Amino acid sequence: QVQLVESGGGLVQTGDSLRLSCAASGRTGSTNTMGWFRQAPGKQREFVATISATGFTTSYADSVKGRFTISRDNAKNTVSLRMNSLKPEDTAVYYCAGAARSAVESRPTEYDYWGQGTQVTVSS
Questions:
Q1: What is the mean pLDDT of residues 94-122?
Q2: Measured in whole angstroms, how far is the alpha carbon of residue 4 from the centre of its chain?
Q3: pLDDT tens digits, residue range 46-55?
Q4: Among 58, 73, 91, 93, which is most exposed with the fewest C-beta within 10 angstroms?
Q5: Mean pLDDT (whole number) for 18-23
Q6: Three-state DSSP state, 22
């Protein structure tokens, strides 16, 4: 089993930056691809960013491309999401997810492990 714990959320203003972190524990060898998803009130969970097992390949949702950066430190079993130029529409609960596959993946159904989420609120 793998446990994922997110941290770093909070209340910020439009244009501010935040860095989310996700710490993995347990059978971390079974998590290769990592991803960040978000869910706003009344909306479905949506893909934000994903990173391959090696960290060499990343992919982003169009809505965050150029503003968000996903990275990972395999030695520390952590994944981060740097969020710049935040907008009110970025307000959501952000979830870290891990998958056994190695390639990047944007479909939430392909992920095996999920964290509890961290709230990000961007005020206008």
A1: 94
A2: 11
A3: 999 999 999 9
A4: 73
A5: 97
A6: strand
